[in-house]
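To the wet lab folks,

You asked to see what we're planning to order before we commit. Fair enough. Below is the target structure as C-alpha cells, and below that is the sequence we designed to fit it. If anything looks off to you, flag it before the synthesis order goes out.
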C-alpha cells in the first residue's frame, strides 16, 4: 500500500528532460519513456530557448524530481538552468536523477546508472532510492561536476576536429572511445611530445585552507592557507572535480567527494607521454602514480598560465584561457543513487 502511494506520488512529481539532439535519444527510447510518464511531464530540448522555457515550466510546476537524459554536458546545462530559476524564485530545487544517454557519463557512473528505462522504472514504481549530495564546481558563473585546462581539453578539441574532418559515415565511426583514441594518437600526443616548451602555471589558494594529498588521498604536510601558492611550475593539465569519474569508466579523480565542500584538484606537471601510454590501465582505474602527478584538496583556487591553454567544462570544449578560477558552488544538488549505498552529507552552514 505504501509503495503504491509512493509510486503514484513519484509519477505525479517527476519530470524527464531529454536532449533531443543526443544520438541515444532515439525514437525507441522516446516511445518507451512516453509510456511511463504523462506527456506533459516529458520534455525535449533542441536549443537554448527550449531549455529556458522548459526550466521555467519545471520550477513553476514544482516537480520534486527531475531526470536528465544525455551526457555530462546535458546534466550541466539542466542543473544550471533549473538552479538559476529556483534561486530567482527563492524556492527549493528538485532532486536530480541521471539517465545515461550520452557519450560522457561521469555523473551517471558515480551513481551506478544502468539501463535508462530500468533506472526510471525503479523510481516510478515506488522504490525509495537514496539521495546523494553532490557539490558542484563553480567556473565562470556556471556549475559543473568538473572542469579543467590542458591536455584533456586539448583531446576534446582534437576529437571534435577529427569528427568534423572525417564527416559522413567515417565521422560517425569516430564516435566515443574510438574517436578519442584517434584524437590522442594523431594530434594530442604528437603535439605534447613536440611542443616548444611546457606551459608554466601558478595555482593560488583563494578559499579555505587547502591540503596536499598523498597517494592514498590522505592529507600530508601543513595546511596551505588562503593567499599561498599550491603550485608553480610546468603544467600539462590542471583539473578540479567533485566526482571520481570522467566518463568511459575513467577514474580520473579518485579522491573526489571524500569531504564536503572540497574538490579534488589534480595537476599533471611534467609526465612523459610514453609513461602515460604504458600506464593507461592504471590511469583508467585511478591507480596511476608518478612524481609529476600532484593531488590537492581545495575549496577555491585561481590558476594563471603563461599562454592560453585549452579549456573544458563538464566534458565540453570551451576554447582557451590564460587564467581561471575554480571553486565550490554555494549550492549543492541532491542526486538519486541507484547503488543503494549513498547517504546525503549535511551541508555546511556556509552553503546556501
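Sequence we intend to order:
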Amino acid at each position: 500500500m505504501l509503495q503504491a502511494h509512493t509510486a503514484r506520488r513519484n509519477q505525479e512529481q517527476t519530470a524527464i528532460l531529454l536532449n533531443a539532439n543526443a544520438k541515444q535519444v532515439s525514437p525507441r527510447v522516446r516511445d518507451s519513456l512516453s509510456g511511463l510518464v504523462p506527456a506533459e511531464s516529458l520534455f525535449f530540448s533542441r536549443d537554448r530557448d527550449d531549455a529556458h522555457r522548459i526550466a521555467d515550466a519545471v520550477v513553476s510546476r514544482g516537480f520534486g524530481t527531475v531526470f536528465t537524459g544525455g551526457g555530462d554536458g546535458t546534466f550541466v546545462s539542466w542543473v544550471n538552468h533549473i538552479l538559476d530559476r529556483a534561486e530567482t524564485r527563492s524556492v527549493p530545487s528538485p532532486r536530480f536523477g541521471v539517465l545515461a544517454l550520452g557519450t560522457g557519463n561521469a555523473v551517471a557512473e558515480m551513481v551506478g546508472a544502468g539501463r535508462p528505462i530500468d533506472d526510471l522504472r525503479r523510481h516510478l514504481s515506488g522504490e525509495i532510492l537514496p539521495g546523494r549530495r553532490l557539490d558542484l564546481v563553480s567556473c565562470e558563473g556556471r556549475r559543473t561536476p568538473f572542469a579543467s585546462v590542458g591536455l584533456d581539453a586539448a583531446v576534446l578539441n582534437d576529437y571534435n576536429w577529427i569528427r568534423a574532418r572525417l564527416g559522413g559515415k567515417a565521422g560517425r565511426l569516430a564516435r566515443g572511445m574510438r574517436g578519442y583514441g584517434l584524437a590522442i594518437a594523431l594530434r594530442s600526443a604528437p603535439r605534447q611530445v613536440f611542443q616548444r616548451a611546457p606551459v608554466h602555471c601558478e595555482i593560488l589558494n583563494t578559499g579555505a585552507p587547502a591540503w596536499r594529498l598523498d597517494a592514498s588521498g590522505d592529507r600530508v604536510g601543513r595546511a596551505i592557507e588562503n593567499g599561498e601558492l599550491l603550485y608553480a611550475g610546468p603544467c600539462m593539465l590542471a583539473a578540479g572535480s567533485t566526482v571520481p569519474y570522467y566518463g568511459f569508466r575513467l577514474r580520473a579523480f579518485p579522491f573526489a567527494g571524500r569531504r564536503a565542500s572540497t574538490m579534488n584538484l589534480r595537476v599533471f606537471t611534467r609526465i612523459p607521454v610514453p609513461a602515460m601510454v604504458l600506464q593507461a590501465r592504471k590511469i583508467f582505474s585511478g591507480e596511476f602514480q608518478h612524481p609529476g602527478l600532484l593531488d590537492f584538496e581545495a575549496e577555491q583556487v585561481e590558476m594563471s598560465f603563461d599562454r592560453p591553454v585549452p579549456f573544458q567544462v563538464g566534458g565540453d570544449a570551451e576554447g582557451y584561457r590564460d587564467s581561471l578560477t575554480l571553486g565550490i558552488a554555494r549550492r549543492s544538488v541532491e542526486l538519486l543513487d541507484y547503488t543503494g549505498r549513498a547517504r546525503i552529507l549535511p551541508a555546511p552552514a556556509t552553503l546556501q
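Structural context that might help your review: The chain has eleven helices and 18 strands. The radius of gyration is 21 Å.

Thanks,
Computational group
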